[in-house]
Amino acid sequence: MIKLAVAVGFLAVQVYIYNYFATEEVHPPRQSFAAFPTQLGDWRCPRKDQMTPDILENLGVTDYLICDFEREEPAARVGVYVGYHESQVRKEGGGAGGGQIHPPSHCLPGSGWDIIASSKRRVELPGLPAGGADVNRLVIAKGDARQLVYYWYQERGRVIADDWMKIVWLFWDRARTQRTDGSLVRFTIPMARDDEESAERLFRDLAPHITTQLPSYSPG
Fold first, then answer.
1. Domain map of the chain by residue range?
2. For the chain, which residues score pLDDT lower than 50?
3. In Å, how far are 6, 136, 187 from 30, measured between CA atoms?
4. What is the model's pLDDT at position 212?
5. 183 within 8 A of 84, measured Cβ to Cβ
6. pLDDT (0 to 100) of residue 184
7. pTM of this prediction?
């Protein structure tokens, strides 16, 4: 009975916020990922990948960066995805540019990857809040292939790991500031079986170059 009352109360608050507080959204100025640098220290992005129209529509993303950053010495490759949503409110008729960010933990199994380890990890990186932030760390497998994945939500000046907390802040910020914009930030590092340490070092080497740039593309 208590759980039902809480659920009904939560729905009532959502309806109140959506109908009386946030009638118009605020979209802060930002740079397009078309301007994101392709050379970051020893790391180079040979080509920014493009989504097909059907994937773009399904994700509802406004702007994005998809690139495998490569390093020659020693040879290494790290996949980087940052998807920016100007609005996380689903627009009438659907289409790109609206709808909440899809959690990778839901999407990966659908693309054939099994999550074999999942945890939170505290990281301190430039461009993130002072003192560090908790982010998600996964080890995924498909057949003999293994990958280390780091991801988090970077939204309106916050770094958020938990899906449920992202939703709480989304409703709060829409009511308070009329903003629902935010980004999914994801690093994917191929790894040899049982060699997480090498993949971890690659994340630590590239991630600061990426997060330093992010505030211009995902506003605080």
1. 2-216
2. 3-8, 11
3. 38, 25, 22
4. 95
5. yes
6. 96
7. 0.85
Where are the extended beta strands (E) located within 50-203? 63-71, 76-85, 114-123, 133-142, 145-155, 158-160, 182-191
Q: What is the largest CA-CA distance in the chain?
A: 61
| Cα Rg, the chain, nearest whole Å | 18
> Got the DSSP string for 67-110?
EEEEETTTTEEEEEEEEEES--SPPTT--TT-SPPPPHHHHHHH
- For 96-129, the pLDDT digits (tens) are 556 788 888 888 877 789 999 999 999 999 988 8
Other Cβ atoms less than 10 A from the Cβ of 184: the count is 23
Tokens in use for 34? Answer: 């078309």
Residue type for 219, please?
P
| Total Cβ atoms within 10 A of residue 200 | 16
Closest CA to 181 of 57, 89, 93, 91: 89
What type of residue sits at position 202?
Answer: L
